[in-house]
Amino acid sequence: MSELAYNANELMVINAARLLQDGDQVFVGVGIPNLACNLARRTHAPHLQMIYEAGVIGAQPERLPLSIGDPTLVSGALAVCSMFDMFSFYLQRGNIDVGFLGGAQIDQFGNINATVIGDYFHPKVRLPGSGGSMEIAAWANRCYIITPHQKRRFPARVDFHTSIGFLEGGDARAKTGVRGTGPQAVVTDLCILKPNAQGELILAALHPGCTYEQVQANTGWPLKQAPHVEFTAAPTQEELKILREDLDPQRIYI
Amino acid sequence: MSKLVSLSEAIQSYVYDGDTIYAAGFTHLIPFAAGHEIIRQGRKGLTLARATPDLIYDLMVAAGCARKVIFSYSGNPGVGSLKWLREGIQDGTLEWEEYSHFGMISRLQAGASGLPFMPMRQTGAVDLERVNPQYKRVKDPYGEQDVIVVPALNPDVAIVHVQRADREGNAHIWGILGEQREAAFAAKHVILTAEEIVDESMIRSDPNRTLIPAMIVDAVCHVPYCAHPSYTQGYYDRDNEFYLKWGEISKDEASIKAYMDEWVFGVRDRNEYWQKLGEETHRRLHVGQRLSTPVNYGSFTDE
Question: Catalytic one among A10, A53, A200, A239?
Fold first, then answer.
């Protein structure tokens, strides 16, 4: 199989899956995070547990969920609770290891905007808003962001802090008293960015065939590089086979 | 005492112009039939509160029922955006009040518990606090850190769809519970819509599943398929084709009017709507069986 025999979404799903650990309690979203969790369960993390903000613990969906409240998440799950219980007992209390986040804008310090482009009261473009992401970003032990790498998605500063990464960097996040460690990786179709000690997102790894110049051209701030930028391993035949044949055979998300 | 009435009578009796409505359901059990009935009856000036406004509130905004929306995620779940809501906010023709999911359901939790507000830990994301003055900070009286508080939300009416209820309004719900119970306890009046009306003995056979008790319910309406195009666990699937088509249906005034003329004003009630959808759709939304194992509650007679 040649190195190019996979697409951008497959690359992001596979690299996100590899960040998950066996036994992680993961707050999952529909779409790509859902695929990443299922792939991790089928490969290196069979004891990973999928938790959905709608109030489902230990989901084993028989099909790709159509929305965050799809009944397929409930059939065969370990437990179901109200949304209030989910956000308080599970998330606020500190029982969630990993949260997945996305958004229209992600800035130099991993802050996310999913609310509005332009002024809040006179929006240029109104986006859906926080949903659960404000609390997930603050209270999950660690967070991962998955997004295609485009310049408009990576401005130096976001227009609105829907959910926080490291604010303006340094100890700003720690000073707010939030419990989680914040975004630990941003997985894109070009690379993986990770926060340095100051909370600034820097280039940590390139996907096969991608270059720093390419990443910089699609990033809205002067991007620093880790001392040793790595290359991610190309998707394996096994990973691609599970994704294509079992997890998303209709190619809805990949 | 039976509270069984038609959905049309229930809306007429409990939903007034200017009311705050909470049509509950977190992408599951959304009472679309009630939204259609409110449009048919021409209610105006409503404040529409829901964590996820979904297609139901987009339609009600397009129909001119709403003055304001209160929400925490305004999108077409799993698909895209809600045009009428989004443009109403962008153009300034629709008032709005915005929370995160936890902020929104904490408002209901406070309302349902008879409390003035609910505290939450800080999230560091202060922009929403800045633009929505309903978010406030108070000092933790037992510790050092401030906590964030939101005020109780007590809607005038909650509309809650359930799988089965008895005639008085004791209701069994299963599957995704969302904010169904909190909305019902928080509201001043509760309209229950049910897939099935069952005998009280059926409710009593499984009391752990009774999430809404008759004491807080004002009206019970037998409305099979009330949640179409959303799901009802164990009864029917989401009509995802409809969700995918929503962008097209709602794209302009002519298209949304044509939809309403046919599917809201063009039918008398949900039964007629469901028949009109036709057998192909009925087949497509059918769900198979996956039964739970019965539990033994124990018997305490002398034999």
Answer: A53
CA-nearest residue to A130 within chain B is B100
Considering the four listed CATH numbers 2.10.260.10, 3.40.50.1240, 3.40.1080.10, 3.30.420.270, the one that applies to the domain covering A8-247 is 3.40.1080.10
Q: Please tell me if residue A139 touches chain B, with a CB cutoff of 8 Å.
A: yes
Residue pLDDT, tens place only, B246-271: 999 999 999 999 999 999 999 999 99
Q: Does residue B140 sit in the same domain as residue B189?
A: no
CATH number at residue B224: 3.40.1080.10
Q: Check if the beta carbon of residue B77 is closer than 8 Å to that of residue B54.
A: yes
Residue B291, domain member (yes or no): no
Q: How far is B276 from chain A (nearest CA, A)?
A: 24
**8 Å CB contact of A87 and B102:** yes
- Listed as ranges, residues in chain A with pLDDT below 70 are 1-4
In the residue annotation, A53 being an active-site residue is answered as yes
Any CB–CB contact under 8 A between B126 and chain A? Answer: yes
Closest approach of B32 to chain A, Cα-based (Å) = 16
* Nearest residue in A to B243, CA atom: A66
Q: B21 and chain A: CB distance < 8 Å anywhere?
A: no
**pLDDT score for A3:** 47
For chain B, 303 residues long, the average pLDDT of each consecutive 10-residue run is: 97 98 95 98 98 96 98 88 93 96 98 98 96 97 94 98 98 97 98 98 98 98 98 96 96 98 98 98 97 96 77
What ipTM was predicted for this assembly?
0.95
Whole-angstrom distance, CA of residue B85 vs CA of residue B76:
11
Residue A86 forms contact with B (CB below 8 Å) = no
Cβ contacts (< 8 Å) between B50 and chain A: which residues? none
Q: Are residues B193 and B141 in the same domain?
A: no
Task: Specify the pTM.
Answer: 0.95
Domain boundaries of chain A, sorted by first residue: 8-247
Residue B94 three-state SS: coil
